[in-house]
Amino acid sequence: YNNALISAGAEFASERLESEIKQELSAKDGTFDVSVIARGESEEIYIERVEVIIHPSGLSLNPHAIEKYVSDRLGCECVIIYK
User: C-alpha angle with apex 17: 65 to 58, nearest 5 degrees?
Assistant: First the structure.
């Protein structure tokens, strides 16, 4: 049950964060994907890190701006992956 809650929460957070980053950077759909890695300890769920997968169509995106946005917004590690 806890794993299902963590998974659902991470999926929702991924979608929300992707939408926010698109708006912040004026990025087009399909240029990148966001994956939030969440963990649960005791009764708390927290975001451990965020992975941003940049597709070839998003090579013009500024990875430093994405990392800064995630860090400022969530205070966690942000890993940029080029696909």
Answer: 50
Three-state secondary structure of 9-21: HHHHHHHHHHHHH
Tokens at 32, concatenated: 């990148």
CB 47, CB 74: distance < 8 Å: yes
Note whether 25 and 61 are within 8 A (CB).
Answer: yes
Q: Which residue has the higher pLDDT, 43 or 59?
A: 59
pLDDT tens-digit map of 5-58 = 888 989 999 999 999 999 999 999 999 999 999 988 777 888 999 999 999 999
**Helix ranges (DSSP H) in 1-83:** 2-25, 63-74
pTM of structure: 0.89
CA pair distance 17, 23, nearest whole angstrom: 10
